[in-house]
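Reopening this one. Same input as before:
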Amino acid sequence: MGTAPGFRVLLVTDRSRLGGRPLDAAVAAALAGAPPGSVAVQLRERDLPPRELLPLARDVGAACRGAGAPLFVNDRLDVALGAGADGLHLGEGSLPPTEARRLVRRHGFDLLLSAACHDAAGLARAGAADLALLAPVFPTPGKAAPGEELGLALLAELARGAALPVFALGGVDPDRARACREAGAAGVAAISAVWGAPDPAEALAALVKETGTV
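Same output, byte for byte:
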């Protein structure tokens, strides 16, 4: 497994869960209880066109900087560069990490790259990225069909053989986060475990605690 980034929890945004609350305010509140550097944020609002995503990325980026959290933008290199983000997340249908890295450097930047994957082949394709999001590790209602989850044993096998740090995504909550780390994951990524909790800051702090030194 490659060298892990400084953070160990990746908080993925979902403004549809916020009841109309501004996303930047919600992110700032969630990060308030997490030590600086322990959490990164992935802006994943895939329904927004670039003209709406860019100002949102700038606002969320300001909230992240205030909390010492790197910001990744989903798929849009132009938005990531325009917002001064720290990283770019690549879905399986996005540019290959090698090509994304070339384009980033052509523009004189050096963003962190994360890449989504679901199996060993996906991890191999993600090799030029800085980290991989492996999913779904656990059952995720409305996402993975029953039986499609990877489970801890396969997570451990894939993390051991990966050339880059692997973050576990899909059904990860504080109770499962430590098991993911013990299985070899460099960290975990979460959506509903935080945004679906009564207190997102408390839930995020619990994830950080459970992904501490293993």
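So the earlier flakiness isn't reproducible anymore. For the record, The chain has nine helices and eight strands.
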